[in-house]
Design a protein that fits this description.
mainly alpha; MetI-like fold; 0% strand; BP-dependent_transpt_permease; cell membrane; Peptide/nickel transport system permease protein; transport; transmembrane helix
């Protein structure tokens, strides 16, 4: 039996096809991904090309309203950029930051959780107390603190150029304890089993036992956490950008678009904030719904640790 045939006959796919919410969420998420990453070719305008932007087009309402223009379906923002195109480009930035931050969280958290759970004793106590200290502060507080330090150190101009990698680093460093605690709980349940004892008896090094034998058995809860954490990272980026500590207005993300239009929402230009806000809510909602489905399909007891 081929791997593809095994996948088609698996309980995973069977459960997915029977869950209408999961199927709908996956289709919407796939459409959003295609919209975001095909933006350079499918977006009506390029918000980074200043030669195509006219400040006289600023604050135009959506095409179906009075004074709206058909070339700007969802209207324009305060800089005269087509809002639909800017949202497509901005969603790509938000998703890239979310994925990058989750990869960093996973690398840090999985390594620390493996070491803590396998080594035990003082090493475990120290690493988990470190995680507890970080968890005692809100994620947003840690992210704001680190982001403010970067802006002060590099200056506003340099920060704009490095905003994406800095936000990935900031959000990644703020969220790794979630992975560490979950992986540690899984390792504690695995390290006393016979296959681990056999690996020790034949003289395999600890690092190989942890990464080649124990780690694969912790991937189910890690996958569930990763799905949820992508949504959290996207929300963290949006919150930081809304507070002025994330993506600059000149490099749109969903958060910076919401921020740029917020002061104009009561003056009548509601579309600048409302449409990016709706897109952000939709993106986070479908990711969370997929995460809930994964949690139910995979081992929920293992996920809860």
């Amino acid at each position: 039996m081929t791997r593809w045939q095994a996948f088609k006959d698996s309980y995973f796919l069977y459960s997915f096809k029977r869950d209408k919410v999961a199927v709908t969420s996956f289709v919407i998420f796939l459409l959003l991904l295609v919209m975001a990453f095909s933006a350079p070719w499918t977006a009506p305008h390029n918000p980074y090309d200043t030669a195509t932007i006219d400040i006289m087009d600023s604050n135009l309402p959506p095409a179906w309203m009075d004074e709206g223009e058909t070339r700007f379906v969802l209207g324009t923002d305060i800089q005269g950029r087509d809002l639909l195109s800017t949202m497509m480009y901005g969603m790509r930035v938000s998703i890239l930051i979310g994925l990058g931050a989750v990869i960093l969280q996973a690398v840090l958290g999985i390594f620390i959780g493996l070491v803590a759970g396998y080594a035990g004793g003082r090493v475990d106590a120290f690493l988990m107390r470190l995680a507890d200290v970080q968890l005692s502060f809100s994620t947003l507080m840690v992210a704001i603190f680190i982001s403010a330090i970067f802006q002060t150190a590099f200056g506003a101009g340099r920060y704009e150029q490095m905003a994406v990698p800095i936000l990935i680093l900031v959000i990644g460093l703020a969220e790794w304890p979630q992975y560490a605690r979950t992986v540690r709980a899984s390792v504690l349940g695995e390290k006393g089993k016979e296959y681990v004892e056999a690996a020790r008896v034949i003289g395999l090094p600890s690092m190989r036992i942890m990464f080649r034998h124990i780690l694969p058995n912790t991937l189910s809860p890690v996958l569930v956490i990763s799905t949820v954490q992508v949504a959290n990272a996207v929300m963290s980026e949006a919150a930081l950008s809304f507070l002025g500590l994330g993506m600059p207005v000149t490099r749109p993300s969903l958060g910076s678009l919401i921020n740029s239009g917020f002061e104009y929402i009561f003056s009548g230009s509601w579309w600048i904030t409302l449409f990016p806000g709706f897109l952000l809510v939709l993106l986070v909602l479908v990711i969370n719904l997929l995460g809930d489905w994964l949690r139910d399909v995979l081992n929920p007891k293992l996920y809860k640790g």
